[in-house]
Amino acid sequence: MVVLWGTNHSPEALQTAVGDITERVTNKGKVQLENIDRIHMSNLKASSVDIVLSGFISPASVIHTSKVLEAISKVLKPNGSVYLCEPIVSAKGQSEVRTREELVSALKFAGLVDVSEVKHEEFTPSDLEVVRGILQFNEGLQLQSVCAKKPTYEIGTSSQLPLFAKKPVNGMSQSDVAKVWTLSANDMMDDDIELIDSDDLLDEEDLKKPDADSLRVDCGGEPKKKKACKNCTCGLAEELDAEASLANGKTPKAETSACGNCYLGDAFRCSSCPYLGMPAFKPGEKIQLSQRQLNADQ
After folding, report:
1. 37-65: per-residue pLDDT in tens?
2. Could you tell me if residue 131 is inside a domain?
3. CATH code (residue 46)
4. Least confidently predicted of 34-38, 72-76, 255-259
């Protein structure tokens, strides 16, 4: 057991406290005194202490900083306990004195678990006057005793998780479990296996061809007008000219080739002919070029 004391504790108070603790421990353990401000510099080995007592020597004016709590957690054995007593306030102010909730959070941040309240009491008038003078704080001080433990494992240790269990699962070996999710060619020929017909996934509405007018983009309530590019080679310019001629009551001009040989096939077409790669067609027949043919070669 390690008993921590502060610089504000008198030798007489230390002697009295150690005598009482030693009497209770008897010959079953060893009691060692350590200054709370120098515990991180002490010769205590990591994970070598079963119990740490701190703040119980009158006057109880010790504030356990994060550095002190981390040092306590380091010297404790796995599943070791720390009992500490510290002055607290009911509401956070502009002082280092913490609330009960902040004290519990500090213990948890130091790696301690199972934090529980041991005792909550008021200072005696004489002790309160002394603690106020030490802490330079005069608002509603109370005395809080808590207990916490170090986890049963060493902080920083690691263990490999058994991701691949070697034991049988529900009486089945790993190979048997894998076979459950395996289908062979013979399994697919089994008459007991029902396969979904892809045609059954479509109904009559899915097979209907949509109306071209329903696919037009609505721009302000009116269909968007088509416009041919300059030097159009896809035939849209000729289509728009034909529509304009019909609207004006004129007979559309039959489509003709610049060289007159485009319809005969690639053997008769120019090197820049947009119909290259397409089969021969009848003169005047409208040919729809694919998107690939409309793009320039890279």
Report:
1. 888 888 888 888 888 988 888 888 888 88
2. yes
3. 3.40.50.150
4. 255-259
Spatial contact of 134 and 61, defined as CB atoms under 8 Å apart:
yes
HSE, side-chain direction, 13 A CA sphere, residue 56: 21
Amino acid at residue number 203: D
pTM: 0.49
Q: Which domain holds residue 13?
A: 2-149
User: How many CB atoms within 10 Å of residue 22?
Assistant: 15
